[in-house]
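Just scan my protein:

——
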Amino acid sequence: MRITYGPWGETLAELVAAARAAEEAGAEALWLPELHRSATVSAAAVIAGTGRAQVGTAIALAFTRSPMTTALEALDLAEMSGGRFVLGLGTGVKRLNEDWHGVRWEPPAARLRETVAIIRHFAAHAGSGEPMTVEGELESLRVRGYRRPFPATRFPLYLAGMGPVMTKLAGEIADGWISHELCSPAWLRERALPLLRPGVDAVVSAACSIDVDPAEARRRAAGLTGFYASVRSYAGFFAFHDLAAEQEAVIEAFRSGAGAAGLAAAVPARMVDALTLAGTADQVAERIAGYAGHATTIKLTPPVHGLAPGEIRTAQARIIDLIKELP
């Protein structure tokens, strides 16, 4: 099982420094999200500041760029990295696409399938000078009179998924599957792996909080847990873990106007224990080992929701220290 890391930084310089420290500690890949920063710009910065680890987007939003733009960015990043780049895509939710980015929301699985087909076709044929045509019901490519005059560096393409439809799609067409930030070993074994074909890289995203005091570690992870528990569409996930009542309490806190700190206060210890890696260094290492034999890659990330930068830095440093000690 590969140990990988999702670095954090209050500045891009700090982000790159954290990525470099994780690489030096032994992380085999570095993953950049898209929310407060552009995933592709962050990936470019980390590629420039590292030299060995893979660098991937986990995830870049699939529908807020055209498929051709996504393919161009991926080709550039693959070239810049000397083949270390991984394009990880996800759909986001309807509100994020329509209200935040002003793009249409259509059946996401069907649209993502067509988006992937266009990205791959463009990446494979952009240097030929021949017409490129991919006809889909939701996404199409019709390019003539174009030739990208640079050598193409190949890149793997991963898809994120939580529910069965997106996970199954990743299992069918992607090189890898990236889990939701909350993904227990039981969910991985029972709900995800049966939908992935052999050879797909199963990347488990694991929120990680380490402290000599397990209660303090749980406190840091509670805000992140509450953030995701406030999303009602994740009800099936929480019910699977016998946490339906606990999720409802978080949703009620969210409706009352609670911010990240308030949501954290509504999250009980058993919810944090079930869904994150929170505890002492030894406890977290043991929890990581629980994914062995099932996940092929684990992506460790520090908690950020409701925490001041100093606390995030502490959480990050402890994860990187743990990576040094993991087999």
